[in-house]
Amino acid sequence: MTSTTAKTRSWWGWGNVDDAVTGSEKEELLNRVRLLLPDADLSTHEPPEVADLTVPAPRIQAPTSLGHLASDDLTDRVAHAHGKAYRDVIRNLKGQVDDVPDLVVRPRTEQDVVDVLQWSTDAGVALVPFGGGSSVTGGVEPRGLADTYPGVVCLDMTDMDQILEIDHTSRAARIQAGAYGPAIEDGLKPHGLTLRHFPQSFEFSTLGGWLATRAGGHFATVYTHIDDLVESMRVITPVGAAESWRLPGSGAGPSQDRMFLGSEGTLGVITEAWMRLQDRPRWRTGASVIFNDYSAAVQATREIAQSGLYPANCRLLDPVEAILNAGTPTSGGVLVLGFESASRPMDNAMSVALEICQDHGGTVPDGVRSTDSEQQTTRTGAAGTWRSSFIRMPYQRDALAQSSMIVETFETSCTWDKVEQLRDAVNAAAMSAFESLGITGVVSCRFTHVYPDGPAPYFGIYAGGTWDKTVEQWDQIKKAVSAVLVEHRATITHHHSVGRDHRPWYDQQRSEPFARSLRASKDALDPAGVLNPGVLIDPRPP
Amino acid sequence: MTSTTAKTRSWWGWGNVDDAVTGSEKEELLNRVRLLLPDADLSTHEPPEVADLTVPAPRIQAPTSLGHLASDDLTDRVAHAHGKAYRDVIRNLKGQVDDVPDLVVRPRTEQDVVDVLQWSTDAGVALVPFGGGSSVTGGVEPRGLADTYPGVVCLDMTDMDQILEIDHTSRAARIQAGAYGPAIEDGLKPHGLTLRHFPQSFEFSTLGGWLATRAGGHFATVYTHIDDLVESMRVITPVGAAESWRLPGSGAGPSQDRMFLGSEGTLGVITEAWMRLQDRPRWRTGASVIFNDYSAAVQATREIAQSGLYPANCRLLDPVEAILNAGTPTSGGVLVLGFESASRPMDNAMSVALEICQDHGGTVPDGVRSTDSEQQTTRTGAAGTWRSSFIRMPYQRDALAQSSMIVETFETSCTWDKVEQLRDAVNAAAMSAFESLGITGVVSCRFTHVYPDGPAPYFGIYAGGTWDKTVEQWDQIKKAVSAVLVEHRATITHHHSVGRDHRPWYDQQRSEPFARSLRASKDALDPAGVLNPGVLIDPRPP
């Protein structure tokens, strides 16, 4: 993890303290907000000192044999209390850190994981598996667990972070679950290989976290979801190790991997996985297509998604998203299109995609940029601006949160036939929530992924909040929009996971027989009910 | 099902009586075998009359409310006793039909399914869901169930065979589980759409069967497995209906669909599904590449699989397969390559693929054939011959089975790094089994699917059997080869399913925690243990 070790991780906000939005960058950001929301109260609030927080002393100690892995350091414990959602950051800023693990335990070997699970099962201590801690759904927060469990342990997996084996012929690598994104790519690069999985959290999330939460990558089509990049997984459950074989494909019963993918730490602890790799792309081509009409833009995007062209990037920004995050004023949005290949130039595919766009009134004022090299081209135009802002977004979110803004996202997926209707309904619900809260705000939408049968719309909420009520205000907006998602039978999460925050709507989404089946699996694999209680499945009664 | 309604289905063998291999076709087939295996005893055996079989009378009656759906006709019952594996056909020919369902029940509505499940649960009657009955793994055979259950019912789903809804925008259709392949394609064709899922059993298998067994389609890459073509499913379980939402993608917990995919009728009865469709391809290009060296051919195939070119067909026939089923003598095999697209010509992709082949010594004596039309070109060369023989293969299998031959397949998948080693080991194990049985035979291999990390090798066994021992002889070969698969950690089935025949090796393949989880799910969804007992999970004790 060369890129982050020299920096200091923030206990309360995103990423590194050193990379926070400050100075002129912050001033420019706030000026943009002032233009958009002239009435917003943008007074800035600083985080409290950790030492000033009211945090109960640890109620438990690790057994002697595990003592060398355990930390009861206050900052360590507090930094493992919340994920990195807006409501986490805001609560941190306000010093509302109510549920702090008693201990943080960092296993170094698989046997350590087995031993911790054994102890936790025997002692009835709740265990919250923790990767990079970038959850935005309360997935790593031991919310309310102190009432039910005599102890709560955060199992931080980041000391198990090695690439153990590379199979060049099959293009696969065996990687430990605690490895961060940059460490994985740094380790693979000398071999000309890449996992090519780039979620927005890439720098601050781990392989194990991606697997446990079914992370979506940066790329728009085909092999981008972590689900499809897994060849086999090894999971330590309280009743033993579950390892699947390295298989490119199998039809032998329901997929074991698919049961652990998305299990969010409730069924076992993922220790390592064989991951499918790709050659590093050599040819790249990109373009930003401007539309005057959003419906026409949606239709063009749909046709490309259904064309079998498989673009690497096919991100439709609606007019609000285009102006906010790509600085491009349009009446119908911008489609950020890109193709990549390690085997051949992709200009042909780009031409076909652009023809589709032209048929729907799309224009390409900045032209097409193609490169043939390992070197990434300097990106220009809306696509380039949007990309740099993509990486800065979480830092900007924190700066805005400090300035009393409500800045958060919803993400979902739905079929093409109802996407415009859904977007309208989400907009209306958010606007109506703003109104009833007496605040002003805007809603933006981009498609993060496109499938032949529908896109994954990702909504951004930017509203001027009231400092002492921002959590409640956000919760009210969240409730209003989530109800719309359920009403339209759009998933409550496309790639952010369920965690604790999405439970009420997830429970409506899943069928009762499947819920029963999941509870039965949980009881079979985690009979003491100690693994991440409250996520996906209700915790055992006090 | 226009193509099959006018014909008579065979009770003992594959497909339609009218399409059996007879006359000069049979004579030519046997002559080819005589060349290959001059010592084989090819005397022909005819099936018994159904009326002459010793079949116990039905032990149960359907309740009055379900009487109109139930059949106790002898031929009907016998035709639902076995699947269509070699060992099923041989046992039928010999009159060894030991486990016959008491009744065949054909629900017409979902309520009928609910009612049958209720009755079966209340009465403790075993229920075997049945689609086209093309299982080659004993998946629909009520083997030994009469000893444990007071009655055994075959639930034949083929009266629920309608396309209920088409969403053109999202390119998806809601289809009932009992629809056969041709009926689905006939219904979609007027809309310019296709499910594009063509397993070898296409004409005689159903959507529900494909879903329950995780069928593999004909195509080599990307969207071909039924798993990836499902948008949502509706499954009736004994504890209620489980329906997933129509979602292009979701990260909300472990996938419900993936639990029912591959559940082989043990957790519920699939009644319908929203399936992802595709535009009908317009541009096609195909070529047959000849190799002198098999290792070089494997390497070329691997590079194409890893190129991101996504060929529709990428089927490497080894020298034995090439001569037997494509009539092409080679020392290194034939790679049957094809590209298809609804959006653009694929000559460019074909050129890149052929360059890869040339780098490994591949030649294309018959040239490349490209077409631009809805009309399928007349296929020539090895590709064309192989394709027609693909469709006739199961009928030929039956003709050879009648002539005392042992003709059966193994299919698996493994990573690229060990595929040649695995093929050698399978060949050696089969040859050694032939020798210890005192028979002669050959083993062929083709790749049915290729993934970036490995192929799905499909082995054909052709050996001269001894008529009164062919089942035992086959079982011995099966045992020897399956042990090799497990030893190499190659899946016991890539797309044929587990059924009853693959259980011993499946049990070694799956981890114990996953087995526990599956048993727990089964107990939760099918508390009476009536659904397809013995498949995937042990039946309840007598």
From TrEMBL, chains A, B:
Specify the superkingdom: Bacteria
By its UniProt entry, which InterPro entries does this protein fall under?
Answer: Alkyl-DHAP_Synthase, FAD-bd_oxidored_4_C, FAD-bd_PCMH, FAD-bd_PCMH-like_sf, FAD-bd_PCMH_sub1, FAD-bd_PCMH_sub2, FAD-linked_Oxase-like_C, Oxid_FAD_bind_N
- The positions annotated for binding FAD are 129-135, 264-270
- Which cofactors does this gene product need? FAD
Q: Does the keyword Transferase apply?
A: yes
- Provide this UniProt record's keywords sorted from A to Z: FAD, Flavoprotein, Oxidoreductase, Transferase
EC number(s) in its UniProt entry? 2.5.1.26
What GO biological process terms are annotated to this protein in UniProt?
lipid biosynthetic process
Please list the residue ranges annotated as the FAD-binding PCMH-type domain. 97-280
The protein's matches in Gene3D superfamilies, at most eight in alphabetical order, are given as: 3.30.300.330, 3.30.465.10, 3.30.70.3450, Uridine Diphospho-n-acetylenolpyruvylglucosamine Reductase, domain 2 (3.30.43.10)
Span list, region Disordered: 363-383
Extract the GO molecular function terms from the UniProt entry: alkylglycerone-phosphate synthase activity; FAD binding; oxidoreductase activity
**According to its UniProt record, what is one Pfam family this protein matches?**
FAD_binding_4
Enzyme active site: 458
Q: Where does substrate bind?
A: 397
Q: Where is this site: Important for enzyme activity?
A: 315
The UniProt similarity line reads: Belongs to the FAD-binding oxidoreductase/transferase type 4 family.
Annotated PANTHER family: ALKYLDIHYDROXYACETONEPHOSPHATE SYNTHASE, PEROXISOMAL
Name of the protein this chain belongs to: Alkyl-dihydroxyacetonephosphate synthase, putative
Organism equals Corynebacterium glyciniphilum AJ 3170
